[in-house]
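[audit] Reproducing an earlier prediction to check determinism. Same input, same settings, fresh worker. If the tokens differ from the archived copy the diff job will pick it up downstream; this log only records the rerun itself.
[audit] input (549 residues):
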Amino acid sequence: MVSTRSTARTLIRPSSLTYVDFPWIIEHREDRCTLCGQCTSVCPREAIHLAYRRKRQPNFEVFGQKRGSEFGVFTGIKQETRMANSCIGCGMCEMVCPNDAIRPVPNDNEHRSLFFRNLNGDSYKRGGRRNQTGPTLLDRILFDRISMLTDPALDAGRHEFTVTTTLGRMLPPDEFLSRMRQGEWIPPTREIFPFIIGSMSFGALSPNMWLGLLQGVAYCNEVLGLPVVMCTGEGGCPPWILKSPYLKYIILQIASGYFGWDEIIRAIPEMQCLPAAIEIKYGQGAKPGDGGLLMWHKVSTLIARLRGVPPGVDLPSPPVHQTLYSIEESVMKMVQTLSMAFDNKVPVYPKISASTSAKSVLNNLVRNPYAGGMVIDGIDGGTGAAYNVSMDATGHPIASCLRECYLDLVRQGKQSEIPLFAAGGIGKNGNVAQNGMALIMLGASGVHLGKYIMQSAAGCLGNEMNRCNVCNLGICPKGITSQNPKLYRRLDQDQVAERLAETFQSINTEVKKIMAPLGRSQSLPIGMSDAIGINDQAAAERLHIKYLC
């Protein structure tokens, strides 16, 4: 009887591929392999399997006329050549192999698999981020203003620094004092660390990952004294968190699907404390206009209960809020309604995609006293599930969009009132403090981090060379973005919390190292664009900063 796998290999179809057509090739050493099977059991894509087949070995005598064949048995590891089981280069097989007998190797040949991703007539979707490599524009921005004599530089290791920013609307000093004397309402604000854990939902992330982040955020606040906050993303969070003292470290997000908001509204009377802020998501830079999508692979029974839907179904969010007609109506309805829901004591702000229309949204927020800021998400932002064409070709870079909005506020004299937060590709190549401070000097009050936190705190294997990037399929080999207990139990939430605390301690140190040469210690250098430059003349003109050559 011939196996199904063997039969499939004998049929040559238009989509038939070989090992060299895939971006990753499994390199296997038969002389070291003991056939323990650990590599095949741990592979999330089932890209390798134990092969057992008859092998013909020709045998003939050079000086004689005798011809014949000998037959042996081949037993070993073979790589699948089907798109559905293609290797993603995660390296889990190499991590568990006791004899260093197997490893994935990046293929430098032309990848024909690119032409066969549209299986079943559906365009290719992927998790992760854009796959452009090399230094980004933020990586190339330099801090070139060094105080030496007239304004001495500070010692970053011994001097006291104030490394915090304000979330929420700031009133002009005279108006603030006047309202305070008369007992009038003052917009709520929060003093937070300028590097925020961006919106990654309980559902997109595994329970162990999400709770590990929360545990690390609580440690940063209560032990290290770093006021770090995290955003829930759409889908809410476990009900017990809403009634716990940890809620004050959380930004609750409401998006166009309204998933998880039933639990939040019901919990308001029992909340021990108020959340850090409310974020209303209108768009995200990785896939503007597409809305959100949590694929059915990740809708477990727990996630379905929290979101009020049946388990095992796709959960798409509309691209826009269905109850709103325009951004003007949104500002009047959503922002003010949610402000009143929390007794006008919680900052409320929108999150939008970076685009040429971002300034029009900002100008509407300026006129509304309830708006507590704005988050702009650029094209380099990550996502759990998006079409390839959306991630690669739709959106606007964050640096130029942020700069335009900030300069528009400057022209109105409102730059100190409405805080702008930037997101999308920060720390893409590991330079998180440099990227974040560059955006702060371009006008941001803070930045949102997503993929960088997954990589630094949980060891995410994805990279810009399309390694792994299966966040959308629920088969994350590290258990970071999976709802399968067999996978997410690989992730120790205590270790996630420990690594998160170490990450923010390192970011805090690097921010001080950047602020010290500027002679700044009591406030972040927000909008201090005279302290930065770039060796790209076109970019310098676009961002209104110095051209360094």
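[audit] rerun output stored. Observation attached for the diff report: The chain has 17 helices and 21 strands.
[audit] end
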